[in-house]
Amino acid sequence: SLQRELYWARESLILAWGSTTGLQIKMGIDLNIWLGYRGWHMDLAENSLLNKLIRKSLVESNHHVEVLQRDPSSPLFSVKTFEELHLKKELLQGIYEMGFNRPSKIQETALPMMLADPPQNLIAQSQSGTGKTAAFVLAMLSRINGAEKFPQCLCLAPTYELAVQTGQVVEKMGNLCVNIRVAYAVRGNRLPRGTKIEEQIIIGTPGTVLDWCFKLKLLDVKKISVFVLDEADVLIDTQGFLDQSFRIQRTLPQHCQMLLFSATFEDTVLRFAKQIIPDPNIIKLRREEMTLTNIRQYYFLCENKQDKYKALCNIYGSITVGQAIIFCQTRRNANWLSQELSQDGHQVSVLSGELTVEQRAAMMTAAWNPVISRI
Ligand SMILES: Nc1ncnc2c1ncn2[C@@H]1O[C@H](COP(=O)(O)OP(=O)(O)OP(=O)(O)O)[C@@H](O)[C@H]1O
């Protein structure tokens, strides 16, 4: 049956090579294959990035949005069209150019709250692909004064790659908003002390954002008017990020709007969310039962690293793979796998944290360039 599935699989492929003790292979678009040892644990950030890469359109939901208002007596607004939000002309145009016709389920309720005056804080949870990123990017873009050349919105993301994904949404949606720019506060993007940052939106990982704010004094936190914690469940899963997020949040001015988003709402996430976001509105969208008819998933148990590699080769032998991203848990693993694949005649590049931001960005772009087939 696997052979038959492989035969029908399309060319796009995303693979995740697990720890030295496990291999997970996730094939995107049409088919997911998971190879691994019992007890294999997938990195949440990888999972999140995979979801973003695989899913290119909105996940529609029929569930009602559950709302817990900061002030239960205030009227609850929801919108069915983007026009009702009275956005800047160029922003509305930007949304339509992205192909958005109407707000998604979560956006119907979240957007009026996020755009309200005076600003309200928000905690929002809904599964991946339901439009959270688009919602907070819209909120950031609508609050920025493009004429002012200093950081006004700060968005924390768990990894460089996830930060770039959000940055790309800002660039697309803000395409027609003149003078609005994004800077990435991520490891590898080294700016000398005293650099004047003119970009209005900063997207970065907590550690580097802290450095930019306090060690290098590149960012004046007191001027931030929108603070976003994206992928909160992934953020708190990364060692040190929870404390660092609190340290940043504590220095924000009182009028700063704070928004937190998460795909899941475990107790730990909700506790963190309620601690870090003062007086929030909380909205939740129940998870839609997934009936992804075009994705099938397989999981294989392997004995050892060689076995995993053999399994990988079998898959490559069974289908024509155009391009693939293979996620590895360690740099060593990535280098080893890259060597093995190169020896087998594949075109491979290794993307890891030791590269500069420019190198990593170039590599991400190359992922969609047919010359390099595996990253
Ligand atoms: N109102 C909308 N109409 C049509 N498409 C939309 C709308 N909002 C978002 N999308 C598209 O749906 C997809 C998922 O949206 P988005 O990335 O904002 O979801 P998300 O909840 O943030 O997902 P994740 O948790 O994976 O980041 C994207 O391709 C986005 O462009």
TrEMBL record:
<dbReference type="GO" id="GO:0016787">
    <property type="term" value="F:hydrolase activity"/>
</dbReference>
<dbReference type="GO" id="GO:0005524">
    <property type="term" value="F:ATP binding"/>
</dbReference>
<protein>
    <recommendedName>
        <fullName>RNA helicase</fullName>
        <ecNumber>3.6.4.13</ecNumber>
    </recommendedName>
</protein>
<dbReference type="Pfam" id="PF00270">
    <property type="entry name" value="DEAD"/>
</dbReference>
<feature type="domain" description="DEAD-box RNA helicase Q">
    <location>
        <begin position="80"/>
        <end position="108"/>
    </location>
</feature>
<dbReference type="Pfam" id="PF00271">
    <property type="entry name" value="Helicase_C"/>
</dbReference>
<dbReference type="InterPro" id="IPR011545">
    <property type="entry name" value="DEAD/DEAH_box_helicase_dom"/>
</dbReference>
<dbReference type="InterPro" id="IPR014001">
    <property type="entry name" value="Helicase_ATP-bd"/>
</dbReference>
<dbReference type="InterPro" id="IPR014014">
    <property type="entry name" value="RNA_helicase_DEAD_Q_motif"/>
</dbReference>
<keyword id="KW-0378">Hydrolase</keyword>
<dbReference type="GO" id="GO:0003723">
    <property type="term" value="F:RNA binding"/>
</dbReference>
<dbReference type="InterPro" id="IPR001650">
    <property type="entry name" value="Helicase_C-like"/>
</dbReference>
<keyword id="KW-0547">Nucleotide-binding</keyword>
<keyword id="KW-0067">ATP-binding</keyword>
<feature type="short sequence motif" description="Q motif">
    <location>
        <begin position="80"/>
        <end position="108"/>
    </location>
</feature>
<keyword id="KW-0694">RNA-binding</keyword>
<dbReference type="InterPro" id="IPR027417">
    <property type="entry name" value="P-loop_NTPase"/>
</dbReference>
<feature type="domain" description="Helicase ATP-binding">
    <location>
        <begin position="113"/>
        <end position="283"/>
    </location>
</feature>
<dbReference type="GO" id="GO:0003724">
    <property type="term" value="F:RNA helicase activity"/>
</dbReference>
<keyword id="KW-0347">Helicase</keyword>
